């Protein structure tokens, strides 16, 4: 009787590929969970506002950049409470005129507001904080140092 020679497991290469893929997917999932964890640890906002925000560490200062297209400086409010930065904005669409004969075929511009609450990763010097708005981008410079528990409203430079 003719027997087949002993051969290694024919699917060994496929099994190795699946093992490597599983390890890579587990590693990617852990990395993604850490990113979500870090993001939620800093962002205290309870709802997604659609307003994009960046937090950068520039060595001696933290810099927060927020997209605020269509908002005037009077529409924005910035508060620093301890290590929590709160940025709110509210704008209304251009007032409607009753004597206006315009008929809108589509109307998407409406009252808009947002509120973002951001926990800063370290204390900042509340007296040195300043903010500017340029081309629809709000930039807040927060010099690092010690912080206080006082609530402080931050004026936007014009």
From TrEMBL:
It holds the Pfam family HSP20. This is Heat shock protein, class I. It comes from Natrarchaeobaculum sulfurireducens. Belongs to the small heat shock protein (HSP20) family. SUPFAM superfamilies: HSP20-like chaperones. It comes from the Archaea. The keyword Disulfide bond does not apply. Keywords: Stress response. Residues 44-158 form the SHSP domain. InterPro entries: A-crystallin/Hsp20_dom, HSP20-like_chaperone, Small_HSP.
